[in-house]
Amino acid sequence: MRKNIFIIFTVVLIIFCMIILSGYEKAMTAGVFGMDDTASYEIFDSQEEALNYEYEYLTQEFNIANLIKDPDNLKQHRYSRKRHRFFGVLQTVIPFKNIKPYLKRGSKSFDPRREPVKTLPSEGEQVFAAKAQASQSQKKERALQTAFGNVIKKDEVNKLLVKGDSIGGQYYENIRIEIYDLNGVLLNTITPKTDSGYNPNIMLGDFLGNGLKQVFLGINSGGSGGFGYFYVFDAQNNQIKTLFDYQEFSQNNKYVGEYIDNYKAKVTKAGSKESYVIDLSLRPKDYLDMIWKPDGTLISPRKIDISDVNTVFPYYNSSTQLFELAVYQRVTGLFNADSLGYIITQQNIKDGKFVTFFDGLMIFSQ
Prior knowledge:
It is a single chain. With 366 residues, the chain is of the alpha+beta class. The protein has seven helices and 17 strands. The radius of gyration is 36 Å and the shape is flat.
């Protein structure tokens, strides 16, 4: 009986040893252990340590400068501790640090020289983010739009190229318009006072009636109110002249507004007697109760805001066969979203300058 138990115990022990040795052989073949029984890979102690190692790895293997050009591609190479704590493809994620990179999978050869594990930087994710940010923040010149027209001389067609330095997304700085001849020679550069914003674009149109095209430039501010920066430039005889500047227009066209008794609002052009009255009596009762007493008198004086230039639309006047401008200024009440209407000013060229030939107040239906 004891002999049988001994035999069974011996067989079980032999099988157990064989399993251990087999597992060790597989692990050694896989490159987890070297021939000197020391670890070739080990688990990172923290995500911070992994990110530092990842940055060094990506810089060497993938060229971080190229990855930055494609943020989505870069994200695919970011180390995720939750997802890749123990597993992952070494070429795309790095959950383990390679102590012995010379040891190949399935190979029993090894370098007899033992080098100590290099100490990794401790800044962690901040190191990766800071260095990536530094590369990403480098301004890149972009060609944004191309147009053709005779802007300098009547008998010569020019190529106009809108350029800007990309900062991120659709935002650009150093926006300018380069004027070339058809041989590619740069003749002049138009630089607006406000040279940064979103989606700059140009339109060529005859505003002056001199047989040339003038350059209308619009740049979005990016805000929720739909504001922009607008110019009209003339390049006749290769001399750049600003015909319309949104800032100068705003300075010369100021309006003030206020609520008045009997559920009305009044808008007046500064320095003149020109005014407009808006009837707000059909507004909801809760709106009226914030401004007026039940008898229609004001609870307290309240101002109305009339913005500077909000947007500018160039349009073609078929009767004069010239382009003109329609300039919009927002009228707002209790808050920015409380739009009461727009002051619209129409301008055309007279004696080489834009002058107003019509202005009025457009109100929204109630």
